């Protein structure tokens, strides 16, 4: 103890109580009674965003809980998709760059007669990259990406659907530039039928109102709808989704690129000629089918060995033979008949 202020065996009380700021370990009775109010927790980033949105006049009439739901359930912040991650689809990439991404990046140039479309329809067989293209538009245009499937709009939000659509557009405007992506849009904007109930009719009407919203408003979000069943869309829906882009099955080169991309971090022993053979043998496979094929081929070397004793680096590389085996298991999911329908619809309605 420095400078001997506390004497061993002596009465040290005065020395202790003189120490600055000393507080006895147990509060005195009267201190206990006037407990300090609990400290206010600082607001999270999300809460601050909701506050900011509530203050914006564009959300007038919107409910806080709905804004919170939209931010937590529909706003997708995991946007690490670029065009380089998407195999093939060169025409679609070029078209969306010109029609959508450039205008998002340079709103000062793309106005007036050059103003971009506010509705885009991506149609074609399932698993061909429609969702990837929509995400890449958002990430390359640094736009917010709200994503919802129409079936969840019509089931989960039923009853509140109309309000939900209005709030979604209001939030998207506040956070502009924004993209609202609706998967399976055919089930939302379907041709009227007798089974259509009042709630979904009202939701559809609200969608049209929002889509027709002030065209000159630069904060108007871009609506991207994806569908495998474009035939289900009626004329009113087709008209509002001004641009229609066909997303076809991948061509041979795209299929090979996709296999290469997916095998990037795997051990494989496949030369250029063999890659070419995989490209030929996978004719008619979608991008999603190709992914399933690669996964199946990569599993094959783990069969017929004692997995409990083998070390990971002793598992043999994937070969063309594994792909041939996998091709017997993983079959293409799209039929020629379905493809013919898309091509026919494309010829009739694409613009
Ligand atoms: P959909 O056309 O049904 O929206 P997705 O974009 O969701 O299809 O694709 C499903 C999955 O299939 C993707 O996550 C990706 O793994 C794979 N895939 C499909 N098409 C492509 C493609 N052109 N390039 C790369 N991966 C693709």
Low-pLDDT sequence parts: 1-21
Roughly how many Å is the radius of gyration? Answer: 30 Å
Beta-strand content: 5-15%
Helix count from the secondary structure assignment? 15
How would you portray this structure in words?
This protein has 351 residues and is α/β, with parallel strands linked by helices. 45% of the residues lie in helices and 8% in strands. Strands 2-3-4-1-5 form a five-stranded parallel beta sheet, sandwiched between helices. Helix 3 packs across helix 4 and helix 5 (90-105) runs parallel beside helix 6. Adenosine-5'-diphosphate is lined by residues 86-89, 126-132, 226, 250, 258, 287-288, 291.
Topology:
Blueprint: H1 13-18, H2 29-33, H3 45-55, H4 64-74, H5 90-105, E1 119-123, H6 130-140, E2 144-149, H7 150-155, H8 161-174, E3 178-183, H9 198-211, E4 222-227, H10 235-240, E5 243-246, H11 252-262, H12 272-281, H13 287-299, H14 320-329, H15 336-349
Parallel strand pairs: 1-4, 1-5, 2-3, 3-4
Helix pairs in contact: 3-4, 5-6, 8-9, 11-12, 11-13, 12-14, 13-14
Bound molecules: adenosine-5'-diphosphate (ADP).
The site of adenosine-5'-diphosphate has 17 residues, from helix 6 and helix 13.
Identify the notable features of this structure and list them briefly.
351 residues, alpha/beta, five-stranded parallel β-sheet, 15 helices, 5 strands, globular, binds adenosine-5'-diphosphate
